[in-house]
What we know:
0% strand; mainly alpha; 80% helix
Amino acid sequence: MIQKSKRNKIFIFFSIIFLILFFILNKKNIFVFFDNIQTIKNMSLLLANNKNKKKELLEKIDDFENKKEFRELIIKEKLFFKHKSEKVIFYNLDD
């Protein structure tokens, strides 16, 4: 009787372990797992790039707010063309 009980417990234990391994390690789940790892790497790379862009933009904003020369440079660059042959069109806006 003790041996049957012990065998049943061992059988149930191995059955549970087998089912867990089957659901975790079957082909579909392994591919999904590796795809998720690749997706996480891509997203972390994009996040790092976006953080760098944010840092650069914040530096430009800070320079624009604090440095008069930089502000004048940016305004001239955005409002006027660099070559004399290019023309600027001014519009009169009605308020």
